[in-house]
Amino acid sequence: MQRLRTELVRVIRTSTADVDRRLSTRLNINRAGTLQVNGEAIPVTVRNLSLGGALLEAVPVRLTMNTSVTLPSPAWCPICRGP
Known about the structure:
17% of the residues lie in helices and 35% in strands. It is of the alpha+beta class. The N and C termini lie far apart (42 Å).
């Protein structure tokens, strides 16, 4: 059911420029990453990245609202490099 919802949102958002409310382009990454949750390192798959967020897959913990998380910038990240 979640896959259907995700696909439906993707189809609607990419159907015309009028419905795509994103401020920055998403880059398809599909690489391993590490999510820091309350000081614990959790392996995840980074499906895509933008300047405003990331789509993560295989997050093995349940996150609640206001949970502090960090996705450290890996060397392979094309938009994570500073000036």
